[in-house]
Amino acid sequence: MTAGVEAKPQVMTVLSKHQVKPRDYIVGYFALMSSLAAAESEDEPQLIDELGKVNPEHLAFGREYKARIQQLIGE
Fold this sequence. Notes:
The two termini are 23 Å apart. This protein has 5 helices and no strands. Helix content is 75%, strand content 0%. The protein is elongated. By secondary structure, the chain is mainly α. The longest helix has 20 residues, at 22-41. It has one domain. Helix 3 (22-41) crosses helix 5.
């Protein structure tokens, strides 16, 4: 995955400007998306057991910034 990010000069320019390494970007992206997914699915009965395994801080982050995350990813 990092190779895919590293192969995009425009992305690397932005990451370098903000001193973010490709691996950190990927890990951060997945953490962000998982917090959003947890926040969006917390009212779905079939996922209650799964949510018990979610870091409560990630779930709280997803709840608090749900609208902003959705805006940034174009939802």
